[in-house]
Every structure is written in structure tokens, then in C-alpha cells.
Amino acid sequence: MSHRNPPEEPRPPASLRRVPVQERSAERLTRILDACADVLDEVGYEGLTTRAVAHRAGVPIGSVYRFFGNKRALADALAHRNLDAYAERVSARVDGVEGGDWRGAVDAAFDEYLEMKRTVPGFGLVDFGVPSAPEAMPDANVRVAERVAALLAHHLDRPLDDRLRRTVLVAVEAVDAVLQLAFRGRPSGDADLVEEARTLLHAYFARSLD
């Protein structure tokens, strides 16, 4: 029996001026977001410019402005794409976890975040929101928590109720703070602090899920 939670229907970010309908346009948008991620890794959010992204993507600057009004909108769209990719990748990991095993499912979500943090271009600076521009995606952790809560509810065959949503949101907020500390100045993260975050997760979820 598959325990994969059907992925939430991806919705275009509000920052996207125009939703591509043709394959060529969609491919151009992908190139622009890929370039945004690469430029972020090189110069950070403060150094990010739409002109640099256009140059890296090999498209006219007008192509960038066709989709995005400014660099904040670009980074916000990248954050939305990261969230959709995260949800899909966690679902794939949880497929291999025995049904009802909440620790295995929680570890799958935690380990996938670490994997993306360490390997996905731009993710270290803009995972699910822009740290230096929180108004661009103010509910980033709420959106992450909603995706993870839905996946857990499906995997554990339990209702997606307010209690589970609240538990997952608190866990996401707490672990986010610890992992920010773990990755401060360390691209791969401080191993001891990463494991402290995992221990925190297990201890907190045990109160509700054991």
C-alpha cells in the first residue's frame, strides 16, 4: 500500500506577473529562476539584480520583467518553487517509510530539508522565504507546516485537525531557529546542532503522536 500523500496542487506565486501557458515560455521562466538561484549563491540577496539574472539566464532583461516586477518578486517565486519541490521530495521519501511510523516520516521531512539546504542552488539563502524581506512571503513557515501536517495525517491515517496543524507549526518554527544557528557560517551545518534539532523534533512530536 502506498502512503504517499497526493501533492498539493501547485499555485503560482502572487509575485508572478504572468503565468506561462506555452512550453517555451515555461522553459524561459525555469531558466530565469535557475539563474536567480545561482546568482544568489554568488552574491547574496543584497547583490541580486534582475540584470544579473537576465545575463546569467541568457535572456533579454525584458523577459525577466515580463514575469517579475523586481528582485524581491524573483526571490519569492524561487521560494515557492522550493516549497513545491520540497513537498514532492518528502512525499517520495515517506513512500519508503512503514505506515504509522511517525518518527520515520518526521525524519524524512527533516533529512530532505537538510539535503536541499546543502545541495540545491540558492536554497541556503532563500529556502521558503526571503530572510531579509519577510514581507515578501510572511507565512513561509505556515505553508511548510501545512504541507508537512497533511503528509503526516495521510501517513498516520489520522485527521488533519487543528491540533496536528498547531503541533507541526510549532515544530517547524522551533527547528527553523535551531537550524539557522547550525548553518550560521557553516555551509554543511554544525553536526551536533543538527542532531540537537532532530532530538527536539522527536521529543516534541512524541507528546502528541505516541
Describe the 3D structure.
With 210 residues, the chain is mainly alpha-helical. It is 66% helix and 0% strand. It has helices at residues 23-47, 50-57, 61-67, 71-94, 102-119, 140-156, 162-182, 191-209. Helix 2 packs across helix 3 and helix 4 runs antiparallel to helix 5 (102-119). The protein starts with 22 loop residues before the first helix and ends with a helix. The model is unreliable at 1-7 (pLDDT under 50).
Provide a concise account of the structure shown.
The chain is an all-alpha fold and 210 residues long. The chain has eight helices and no strands.
Summarize the SSE layout with pairings.
Layout: H1 23-47, H2 50-57, H3 61-67, H4 71-94, H5 102-119, H6 140-156, H7 162-182, H8 191-209
Q: Which range best describes the helical content: under 10%, 10-25%, 25-40%, 40-55%, 55-70% or over 70%?
A: 55-70%
Please compute the radius of gyration using only Cα atoms: 18 Å
By oligomeric state, this entry counts as: single chain
Q: Which consecutive residue ranges, at least 5 long each, have pLDDT under 50? A: 1-7
Distance between the first and last residues' Cα: 23 Å
Give a quick set of tags describing it.
single chain, 210 residues, mainly alpha, 8 helices, disordered N terminus
